[in-house]
Amino acid sequence: MSTIVKISNLDKIFGRLHVLHDISMEVKRSEVVCIIGRSGSGKSTLLRCINFLEEPSGGTIEVEGLVVNAGTKGKEHRNLVHAIRLKTGMVFQEFNLFPHMSVLENVTEGPVTVKKIDKAKAIEIAEMNLDRVGLLEKKNEYPNRLSGGQKQRVAIARALAMEPRVMLFDEPTSALDPELIGEVLTVMKKVAKEGMTMLVVTHEMGFARDVADRVIVLGDGSIIEDRPPAEIFSNPQHEQTKALIERYRSAEG
Protein backbone atom coordinates (compact mmCIF):
# COMPACT_ATOMS: atom_id res chain seq x y z
CA MET A 1 0.00 0.00 0.00
CA SER A 2 1.24 3.47 -0.84
CA THR A 3 1.87 6.15 1.77
CA ILE A 4 -0.87 8.80 1.92
CA VAL A 5 0.26 10.81 5.00
CA LYS A 6 3.90 11.45 5.83
CA ILE A 7 5.02 13.56 8.78
CA SER A 8 8.71 14.41 9.04
CA ASN A 9 10.45 15.93 12.07
CA LEU A 10 7.30 17.72 13.27
CA ASP A 11 7.67 20.17 16.14
CA LYS A 12 5.00 22.31 17.75
CA ILE A 13 5.78 25.00 20.29
CA PHE A 14 3.22 27.15 22.13
CA GLY A 15 5.16 29.95 23.81
CA ARG A 16 7.49 28.18 26.25
CA LEU A 17 5.66 24.88 25.87
CA HIS A 18 7.24 22.37 23.49
CA VAL A 19 4.19 20.21 22.78
CA LEU A 20 5.46 17.97 19.95
CA HIS A 21 9.07 16.83 19.62
CA ASP A 22 10.50 15.67 16.29
CA ILE A 23 7.52 13.50 15.26
CA SER A 24 8.05 11.37 12.16
CA MET A 25 5.47 8.84 10.96
CA GLU A 26 3.77 7.51 7.84
CA VAL A 27 0.24 6.28 7.22
CA LYS A 28 -0.57 3.92 4.35
CA ARG A 29 -3.67 4.21 2.20
CA SER A 30 -6.71 2.53 3.86
CA GLU A 31 -4.79 2.14 7.13
CA VAL A 32 -6.51 2.82 10.47
CA VAL A 33 -4.08 4.34 12.96
CA CYS A 34 -5.20 5.00 16.54
CA ILE A 35 -3.25 7.53 18.60
CA ILE A 36 -3.39 7.00 22.34
CA GLY A 37 -1.62 8.50 25.33
CA ARG A 38 -2.11 10.34 28.58
CA SER A 39 -3.95 13.67 28.63
CA GLY A 40 -1.58 16.43 27.60
CA SER A 41 0.69 14.13 25.58
CA GLY A 42 0.07 16.09 22.35
CA LYS A 43 -2.40 13.76 20.60
CA SER A 44 -4.93 16.37 19.49
CA THR A 45 -2.19 18.85 18.58
CA LEU A 46 -0.62 16.24 16.29
CA LEU A 47 -3.93 15.69 14.52
CA ARG A 48 -4.57 19.43 14.18
CA CYS A 49 -1.13 19.99 12.66
CA ILE A 50 -1.91 17.52 9.85
CA ASN A 51 -4.64 19.78 8.45
CA PHE A 52 -3.06 23.01 9.72
CA LEU A 53 -5.69 23.93 12.28
CA GLU A 54 -2.43 24.37 14.20
CA GLU A 55 0.53 25.71 12.26
CA PRO A 56 3.56 23.45 12.83
CA SER A 57 6.64 25.09 14.31
CA GLY A 58 9.03 22.83 12.42
CA GLY A 59 9.07 19.88 10.06
CA THR A 60 7.07 18.81 7.02
CA ILE A 61 3.51 17.59 6.45
CA GLU A 62 2.68 15.62 3.31
CA VAL A 63 -0.81 14.45 2.35
CA GLU A 64 -1.27 12.53 -0.90
CA GLY A 65 1.73 14.19 -2.54
CA LEU A 66 1.04 17.71 -1.27
CA VAL A 67 4.05 18.85 0.79
CA VAL A 68 4.05 21.80 3.18
CA ASN A 69 7.14 22.88 5.09
CA ALA A 70 6.59 24.54 8.46
CA GLY A 71 7.31 28.25 8.57
CA THR A 72 6.44 28.97 4.94
CA LYS A 73 4.00 31.78 4.22
CA GLY A 74 2.35 33.51 1.30
CA LYS A 75 -0.18 32.58 -1.35
CA GLU A 76 1.41 29.26 -2.34
CA HIS A 77 1.42 28.16 1.30
CA ARG A 78 -2.26 29.11 1.72
CA ASN A 79 -3.21 27.27 -1.48
CA LEU A 80 -1.37 24.12 -0.37
CA VAL A 81 -3.02 24.22 3.07
CA HIS A 82 -6.44 24.66 1.44
CA ALA A 83 -5.75 21.68 -0.83
CA ILE A 84 -4.69 19.52 2.13
CA ARG A 85 -7.84 20.48 4.03
CA LEU A 86 -9.94 19.34 1.06
CA LYS A 87 -8.25 15.94 1.33
CA THR A 88 -8.69 15.60 5.11
CA GLY A 89 -12.09 15.32 6.80
CA MET A 90 -12.11 16.31 10.48
CA VAL A 91 -14.47 15.13 13.23
CA PHE A 92 -14.19 17.03 16.51
CA GLN A 93 -15.08 16.21 20.12
CA GLU A 94 -17.90 18.75 20.26
CA PHE A 95 -19.68 18.07 16.91
CA ASN A 96 -19.54 21.77 15.81
CA LEU A 97 -22.83 21.58 13.92
CA PHE A 98 -24.54 24.81 12.87
CA PRO A 99 -27.58 25.03 15.22
CA HIS A 100 -29.63 27.20 12.83
CA MET A 101 -29.30 24.69 9.99
CA SER A 102 -31.11 21.41 9.48
CA VAL A 103 -29.15 18.16 9.38
CA LEU A 104 -29.28 18.18 5.57
CA GLU A 105 -28.15 21.81 5.41
CA ASN A 106 -25.24 21.08 7.75
CA VAL A 107 -24.05 18.28 5.50
CA THR A 108 -24.50 20.15 2.19
CA GLU A 109 -22.88 23.39 3.39
CA GLY A 110 -19.27 22.33 2.76
CA PRO A 111 -19.73 20.80 -0.70
CA VAL A 112 -21.72 23.84 -1.87
CA THR A 113 -19.66 26.68 -0.36
CA VAL A 114 -16.15 25.18 -0.41
CA LYS A 115 -16.19 22.79 -3.36
CA LYS A 116 -18.78 24.81 -5.37
CA ILE A 117 -20.83 21.68 -6.08
CA ASP A 118 -24.29 22.13 -7.58
CA LYS A 119 -26.96 22.18 -4.84
CA ALA A 120 -28.90 19.22 -6.24
CA LYS A 121 -25.72 17.12 -6.47
CA ALA A 122 -24.71 18.22 -2.95
CA ILE A 123 -28.10 17.05 -1.61
CA GLU A 124 -27.61 13.70 -3.35
CA ILE A 125 -24.14 13.32 -1.76
CA ALA A 126 -25.46 14.44 1.65
CA GLU A 127 -28.36 11.99 1.61
CA MET A 128 -26.03 9.14 0.63
CA ASN A 129 -23.72 9.92 3.56
CA LEU A 130 -26.56 10.39 6.03
CA ASP A 131 -27.74 6.95 4.95
CA ARG A 132 -24.21 5.62 5.58
CA VAL A 133 -24.39 6.78 9.20
CA GLY A 134 -28.01 5.64 9.65
CA LEU A 135 -29.62 9.08 9.90
CA LEU A 136 -31.28 9.76 6.57
CA GLU A 137 -34.68 9.94 8.29
CA LYS A 138 -33.37 12.83 10.44
CA LYS A 139 -32.33 15.01 7.49
CA ASN A 140 -34.93 17.72 8.21
CA GLU A 141 -34.36 17.84 11.97
CA TYR A 142 -32.28 20.51 13.70
CA PRO A 143 -29.29 19.66 15.94
CA ASN A 144 -31.09 20.58 19.17
CA ARG A 145 -33.52 17.71 18.53
CA LEU A 146 -30.74 15.12 18.23
CA SER A 147 -28.92 13.08 20.86
CA GLY A 148 -25.17 13.53 21.25
CA GLY A 149 -24.54 10.30 19.38
CA GLN A 150 -26.75 11.40 16.51
CA LYS A 151 -25.01 14.79 16.36
CA GLN A 152 -21.63 13.10 16.08
CA ARG A 153 -22.91 10.78 13.36
CA VAL A 154 -24.12 13.86 11.45
CA ALA A 155 -20.66 15.37 11.93
CA ILE A 156 -19.13 12.21 10.43
CA ALA A 157 -21.56 12.40 7.48
CA ARG A 158 -20.65 16.07 7.01
CA ALA A 159 -16.94 15.22 6.85
CA LEU A 160 -17.55 12.29 4.48
CA ALA A 161 -19.65 14.50 2.17
CA MET A 162 -16.48 16.43 1.31
CA GLU A 163 -15.14 13.14 -0.12
CA PRO A 164 -11.82 13.28 1.76
CA ARG A 165 -8.90 10.94 1.24
CA VAL A 166 -8.15 10.82 4.97
CA MET A 167 -10.44 11.10 7.99
CA LEU A 168 -9.12 12.66 11.20
CA PHE A 169 -11.08 11.91 14.39
CA ASP A 170 -10.19 13.96 17.48
CA GLU A 171 -11.58 12.02 20.47
CA PRO A 172 -14.97 11.69 18.75
CA THR A 173 -16.69 9.94 21.68
CA SER A 174 -15.27 11.89 24.64
CA ALA A 175 -18.23 14.31 24.86
CA LEU A 176 -20.83 11.52 24.74
CA ASP A 177 -22.76 9.77 27.47
CA PRO A 178 -21.54 6.16 27.83
CA GLU A 179 -24.70 4.64 26.34
CA LEU A 180 -24.25 6.69 23.13
CA ILE A 181 -20.60 5.86 22.46
CA GLY A 182 -21.33 2.51 20.80
CA GLU A 183 -23.42 3.96 17.96
CA VAL A 184 -20.60 6.32 16.95
CA LEU A 185 -17.93 3.60 17.16
CA THR A 186 -20.14 1.33 15.00
CA VAL A 187 -20.24 3.99 12.26
CA MET A 188 -16.48 4.49 12.52
CA LYS A 189 -15.91 0.74 12.17
CA LYS A 190 -18.13 0.73 9.07
CA VAL A 191 -16.17 3.62 7.52
CA ALA A 192 -12.91 1.78 8.26
CA LYS A 193 -14.20 -1.40 6.60
CA GLU A 194 -15.10 0.64 3.51
CA GLY A 195 -11.38 1.38 3.11
CA MET A 196 -11.13 4.94 4.42
CA THR A 197 -7.72 5.99 5.74
CA MET A 198 -8.29 7.03 9.37
CA LEU A 199 -6.23 8.65 12.09
CA VAL A 200 -8.12 8.44 15.36
CA VAL A 201 -7.17 10.11 18.64
CA THR A 202 -9.10 8.11 21.20
CA HIS A 203 -9.44 6.91 24.78
CA GLU A 204 -11.55 3.99 23.53
CA MET A 205 -8.97 1.22 23.97
CA GLY A 206 -11.36 -1.49 22.76
CA PHE A 207 -11.74 0.32 19.44
CA ALA A 208 -7.96 0.72 19.13
CA ARG A 209 -7.45 -2.96 19.93
CA ASP A 210 -10.14 -4.28 17.57
CA VAL A 211 -10.12 -1.87 14.61
CA ALA A 212 -6.68 -0.27 14.29
CA ASP A 213 -3.97 -1.58 12.01
CA ARG A 214 -1.44 0.28 14.14
CA VAL A 215 -1.46 2.00 17.49
CA ILE A 216 0.78 4.98 18.10
CA VAL A 217 1.42 5.89 21.72
CA LEU A 218 2.41 9.50 22.47
CA GLY A 219 4.23 10.38 25.66
CA ASP A 220 5.25 13.95 26.49
CA GLY A 221 5.05 14.99 22.85
CA SER A 222 7.06 12.12 21.38
CA ILE A 223 6.18 8.76 19.83
CA ILE A 224 7.07 6.16 22.45
CA GLU A 225 5.52 3.15 20.70
CA ASP A 226 4.25 2.46 17.17
CA ARG A 227 3.20 -1.16 16.69
CA PRO A 228 0.24 -3.40 15.78
CA PRO A 229 -2.48 -3.40 18.46
CA ALA A 230 -1.96 -7.07 19.33
CA GLU A 231 1.62 -6.27 20.34
CA ILE A 232 0.74 -3.05 22.16
CA PHE A 233 -1.98 -4.71 24.22
CA SER A 234 -0.22 -8.01 24.92
CA ASN A 235 3.30 -6.72 25.46
CA PRO A 236 3.54 -2.95 26.05
CA GLN A 237 7.16 -1.82 26.21
CA HIS A 238 7.10 1.70 27.65
CA GLU A 239 6.07 2.43 31.24
CA GLN A 240 3.43 4.96 30.11
CA THR A 241 1.94 2.39 27.71
CA LYS A 242 1.90 -0.22 30.45
CA ALA A 243 -0.01 2.20 32.70
CA LEU A 244 -2.56 2.96 29.94
CA ILE A 245 -3.16 -0.72 29.22
CA GLU A 246 -3.42 -1.55 32.92
CA ARG A 247 -6.00 1.19 33.45
CA TYR A 248 -7.99 -0.14 30.48
CA ARG A 249 -7.93 -3.70 31.81
CA SER A 250 -9.03 -2.53 35.26
CA ALA A 251 -11.95 -0.57 33.80
CA GLU A 252 -12.92 -3.55 31.65
CA GLY A 253 -13.09 -5.68 34.79
Unreliable stretches: none
- Please summarize the sheet with the most strands: 6 strands, mixed
Mean pLDDT: 94
The tally of strands reads: 10
Fraction of residues in H or I helices: 40-55%
Task: Provide a short characterization of the protein structure.
The protein is of the alpha/beta class and 253 residues long. It has helices at residues 43-50, 75-87, 103-113, 119-132, 148-161, 178-193, 205-211, 229-234, 239-252; strands spanning 3-14, 17-28, 32-37, 58-63, 66-69, 88-91, 166-170, 197-201, 214-219, 222-227. The chain has a six-stranded mixed beta sheet, with helices on both faces. A four-stranded antiparallel beta sheet has the order 2-1-4-5, with helices on one face.
Structure report:
With 253 residues, this protein is α/β, with parallel strands linked by helices. The longest helix is centred in the last third of the chain and has 16 residues. Strands 6-7-8-3-9-10 form a six-stranded mixed beta sheet, with helices on both faces. The protein has a four-stranded antiparallel beta sheet with strand order 2-1-4-5, with helices on one face. β7, α6 and β8 form a beta-alpha-beta unit. It is built from nine helices and ten strands.
Question: Layout of helices and strands, plus pairs?
Answer:
Layout: E1 3-14, E2 17-28, E3 32-37, H1 43-50, E4 58-63, E5 66-69, H2 75-87, E6 88-91, H3 103-113, H4 119-132, H5 148-161, E7 166-170, H6 178-193, E8 197-201, H7 205-211, E9 214-219, E10 222-227, H8 229-234, H9 239-252
Parallel strand pairs: 3-8, 3-9, 6-7, 7-8
Antiparallel strand pairs: 1-2, 1-4, 4-5, 9-10
Helix pairs in contact: 3-4, 3-5, 4-5, 5-6
